[in-house]
Amino acid sequence: MAEGGAEGNQPPREHPRNLQGLLQMAVTSGNAEPGPIEPMSDERRQWLQEAMVEAFRGQMDEIEQMKECLRLLEPSTPGAERGESSNEAQSDLEQREGALDILAELCENLDNASDFCKLEGMRLLAHRYLEHEEQGLRWRAAHLVGTCAQNVPKVQEQALALGCMRKLLRLLDNDPSEAVRIKALFAISCLVRAQEAGLQQFLRLDGFSVLMRAMQSNVQKLKVKSAFLLQNLLIDHPEQKEVLCSMGMVQQLVALIRSEHSTFHEHVLGALCSLVTDFPQGVRECQEPELSLEELLKERCQLLKGQEEFQEELDFCETLLRLCFCSQPDESSMDR
Predict the structure, then answer these.
(1) Is 4 left (phi over 0), alpha (psi -120 to 50) or beta?
(2) Model confidence, pTM
(3) What pLDDT digit, counting tens, does each position of 242-264 carry?
(4) C-alpha to C-alpha distances, 49 to 6, 24, 277, nearest whole angstrom
(5) Can you state the angle between helices 110-118 and 86-106, rounded to 10 degrees?
(6) How far apart are CA 143 and CA 130, in angstroms?
(7) Hey, is 74 helix, strand or coil?
(8) 138 exposed, middle or buried (CB, 10 Å; 0-12, 13-18, 19+)?
(9) What is the rounded distance in angstroms from the CA atom of residue 297 to the CA atom of residue 65?
């Protein structure tokens, strides 16, 4: 029996209006009894083309959205500098911030991130917005650089070629806004992880020193994220351990562990563990008597014992005791 249309009793089949409908049509057609292959009719070809256009229209709409956002961001001077009123200037700022927010959401999609760069979006961020006088635009620009660069080598290469690494390190080191510094660190992480050219730029620009200063800041979130990035860089690039030891990184990490206890210490201890693992020079530096690290670690084990929320930090302490001092926490002192 024929299916629908003029030859059957069922109403004509509606053409699918999106990709999901197109797939559903394919499934439905696949359940029909096999028959001889016939050339595609003009009508069927037409609805298939229309369905494909509809299915991919969303992607085209997103490209148009990015173009519209970039058109809004393109003017080089904010409203107040054009002699506009304070209300108009505030509206201009909010529109720019909104455009950057929309772009960040769209560029979570890797294809959109690549298209954003083809539209010269990354150049606009690097040359105008990363160092904009408005902190709300600076942190959004840094966030967008990181969002675009995640796991997209071509985007990473373009951002590096445009000088983003130098500007991001400057923001991380010196910007008065906590939000800007945190977003700059996020973008730096996206440019150095699994990207050799990014790591080399980071090293040439003394990035490890900037990272250490971030760990010594008063911003808890920045301290935690900096220590976490350091730990991961040491895991991914053990060849950098000698450089870090020559910078006095062991001594600086131990000094951070001696500060008032916080959840941040877990990541510092993790970084120190990564630094000394399979690296005798790091072990020797941890054993320096003036650091009194063995005593510090045993005291910390005593403090943390029985507190489930600090289990990972306790594990790092015990690992360091084993690696550097061939010892375990003193059970008798821990039970007191």
Answers:
(1) left
(2) 0.79
(3) 999 999 999 999 999 999 999 99
(4) 22, 16, 59
(5) 130
(6) 10
(7) coil
(8) buried
(9) 55
37-58: per-residue pLDDT in tens? Answer: 455 566 765 675 565 545 545 5
* Structure token digits, residue 202: 């980071």
Positive or negative CA dihedral for 38, 43, 44, 45? positive
Gap between the Cα atoms of 188 and 83, Å rounded: 36
Sign of CA dihedral 102, 104, 109, 110: positive
Burial class from Cβ neighbours inside 10 Å (0-12, 13-18, 19+) for residue 176 reads: exposed
Token couple for 174: 């010196």
How far apart (Å, rounded) are the C-alpha atoms in residues 173 and 214?
7
The fold for domain 64-71+95-205 equals: Leucine-rich Repeat Variant (1.25.10)
Which among 70, 130, 131, 138 has a CA at the least distance from the CA of 106? 70
Cα separations in angstroms, 283 against 177, 228, 257, 297 = 37, 21, 17, 14
Question: Residue with structure tokens 């509809």?
Answer: 54
The one-character DSSP state at 206 is T
Round to whole Å and give the CA distance between 324 and 140.
43
DSSP 244-260: HHHTTHHHHHHHHHTSS
Beta carbons of 137 and 131 less than 8 angstroms apart: no
- C-alpha dihedral over 176, 128, 99, 118, to 10 degrees? -130
**For 34, phi and psi rounded to 5 degrees?**
-65, 145
3-state secondary structure of 88: helix
